[in-house]
Design goal:
single chain; alpha+beta; Methenyltetrahydromethanopterin Cyclohydrolase, Chain A, domain 2; six-stranded mixed β-sheet; 12 strands; hydrolase; one-carbon metabolism; Methenyltetrahydromethanopterin cyclohydrolase; methenyltetrahydromethanopterin cyclohydrolase activity
């Protein structure tokens, strides 16, 4: 499946600006902060800080809108009912007609931001202006905008030193920066993490060295778990929603053989760490993400349609028993 130049062929000349597309969504979020139960404040140096679950409760709709901001304005996130898991009737469905840029170029949490005791991985369109990650060199994409937003899965606001770093790296004035805070244990945080089900599939496709330019379109879904006040349990449930309950459908160019191989390799069950709730796996490696098999991070079930032949291939499986165990279902 590996091709040495799988990214180099990407034609990014006509790719849109993820910041230009998402900035109106950020403005909408801030303008409707009261009805979305969000807090909006200014940092000491003038950046906008949106609290979506620390001192303000936020909620499901806030999380849905934040997820679309994370996707750079190129994704649609919906809450809908499903009969897939009998005890968990609500699910998130995600679609992007530009999955490479939306998921990898914006939504992926890949920008490491740290100062003293503060650490968070930055997600969202602001990443594409800074271009601090090797991924952007591979994609050959760099955005430009006068305003930018980052989403942080954090229960504390970034210190002024981190805000200054983001301003330097993006070239965006501090007063035009917005940081949205979505703690894992919050409703908004739960929604925006599970809404990464398509992004997780795209990231593993990149890890597998499947040609990114062969991915034409994509959609995915995953059950909505209940949040948990305990960080480890909350993180476990949001990951398990994807690992055991996520389903991605991707439309690709190329041969049937390549599509069939992708369907076999892409699901989370291809990982040596598959089979236990994520919180248990994470705890067993002393909460060191880098000790977990990277092949684990993918949807449970996948459908791959080869556009040239019209044939479809499937792989993996949904696991209701592990979903119930992770989500705390009491029979």
């Amino acid at each position: 499946m590996s091709e040495s130049n799988q990214v180099a062929r990407l034609d990014t000349a006509n790719w849109p600006s993820v910041n230009a597309l998402s900035n109106p969504l950020v403005a909408l979020l801030v303008a409707n902060a009261k009805q979305l139960r969000l807090g909006v404040a200014q940092s000491d140096n003038g950046a906008t800080i949106v609290d979506a679950g620390i001192e303000h409760p936020g909620g499901l709709e806030a999380g849905r809108l934040i997820a679309e901001i994370c996707m750079g304005g190129l994704g649609h996130v919906n809450l809908q009912t499903s009969t897939t898991f009998s005890h968990w009737p609500w699910m998130l469905s995600v679609h992007s007609n530009h999955p490479i840029l939306s998921c990898l170029g914006s939504q992926y949490a890949g920008w490491s931001l740290a100062h003293e005791k503060f650490f968070s991985l930055g997600s969202g369109p602001g990443r594409a202006i800074a271009g601090r990650e090797d991924l952007f060199k591979e994609l050959g994409y760099k955005d430009q905008a006068n305003a930018a937003c980052l989403v942080l899965e954090s229960d504390k606001a970034p210190p002024v030193e981190v805000i200054e770093k983001v301003s330097r790296d993006t070239g965006v004035a501090i007063e035009n920066l917005t940081f949205i805070l979505t703690p894992t244990r919050s409703l908004a945080g739960t929604v925006q993490i599970v809404a990464r089900v398509l992004e997780v599939a795209m990231h593993k496709i990149h890890t597998l060295h499947f040609p990114l330019d062969h991915v034409v379109d994509g959609m995915a879904s995953a059950p909505l778990p209940p949040p948990a006040p305990d960080f480890l349990i909350g993180m476990g449930r949001t990951n398990d929603a994807i690992l055991f309950g996520g389903h991605a459908h991707l439309f690709v160019k190329g041969s049937d053989d390549a599509a069939a191989k992708l369907a076999k390799a892409l699901p989370s069950s291809s990982s040596r760490d598959y089979g236990r709730p994520f919180a248990e796996v994470f705890k067993s490696v002393n909460m060191d993400f880098y000790k977990i098999d990277p092949m684990l991070f993918s949807p449970a079930s996948v459908t791959i349609t080869a556009l040239e032949s019209g044939n479809t291939f499937t792989g993996g499986k949904l696991d209701a028993a592990l979903i119930n165990q992770s989500f705390g279902y009491q029979a």
